[in-house]
Amino acid sequence: MDGYAPPIGGETNHMACNQAYDGYMDARAAHDGTSAPTVGVPGSDLGWTLGVILRTWHEQVEQAVADVPHGIRGYQILSVVGHNNPPTQSGLAKHLQIDKTVMPYVVDALEKADLVERRTDPKDRRVRRIVITEHGRKVLSALEAKVRAAEDAVFAGVPPLTRQTFVDHAAHLAVTIHGAKPNLDPCIAVLDALSDPALAARQRD
Q: What angle do CA 138, 70, 104 make, to 5 degrees?
C-alpha cells in the first residue's frame, strides 16, 4: 500500500468522512477569522483525525529523509545509534520493532553509505555493535534539521502554544499506553504509513 489510509472501514464510513470534512471546510469558509472555527468536525472520529495528521507528517518527513537508505526507517536507526550507546543489531531490531531477518539489509545499506559500521564489542568478541560514523553524525545533524523543518510545516498556521500543548498531551498518552502494554509494537498503527517498499521486496525474495 502506498501512503496511509485513515483507519476508517467501509464505503459508508468513507463517505461520512468526506461529508464531515466538507462540512468542516464550509464552516471554516463562513468563519470571519483566519483560524479554524472552534466547532468540531461532525461525523468524524479519532481515527480520522490521527490519520490526517499522520499522513501529512509522513509526506513531509519522507521528503526530508529521502536521501537516506530505506527512508524513514533508515533515519530512525541512524537517530537511535547516534544518540545512545551502540546497540547490538538484535537489540536495535527489538527496540524499533523491525524483523530480525530484515534488519541486516537496512544496516548493510547504511554501512555501505558510510553512515554506520559494525564493531566488535571489546567486552565480548562474539557480539557486534552498530556504531555511527563521523560522516553519519554530520548527516544525522543535517537530517534532524530537515525533520524539524518538516514538522514545522505540519504545524503551519498553528499557534506555538497550541502546538506545544498538543505535542505534550500526545506524548503523555503515548507513554501511558506503552507503559500499560510494554510489549506493544509502537508502530503497529502506522505500518502502512511507514511501509518500506525496498524491505517488502527483500521479504518477497
A: 95
Angle, CA 191 vertex, CA 187 and CA 194 arms, to 5°: 95
Residue 182: φ, ψ to 5°: -60, -20
Q: pTM score > 0.70 for this model?
A: no
Computed from CA positions of residues 190, 191, 192, 194, in that sequence, does the dihedral angle turn out positive or negative?
positive
Q: Do 17 and 48 contact (CB within 8 A), yes or no?
A: yes
pLDDT digits (tens, 9 = 90+) for 97-122: 888 888 999 999 999 999 999 999 88
Question: CA 94, 180, 189, 143 torsion: positive or negative?
Answer: negative
- Domain 11-204 in CATH 1.20.120.530? The answer is no
Instruction: Output the nine-digit C-alpha cell for 3.
Output: 501512503
| Cα separation, 86 vs 83, whole angstroms | 9
Whether the CB-CB separation of 106 and 69 falls below 8 Å is answered with yes
d(CA 48, CA 128): 43
Structural element, H or E, at residue 116:
strand 116-121
For 161, other C-beta atoms within 10 Å of its C-beta total 8
Residue ranges covered by each domain of the chain: 11-204
Sign for the CA dihedral angle at 159, 37, 42, 11 comes to negative
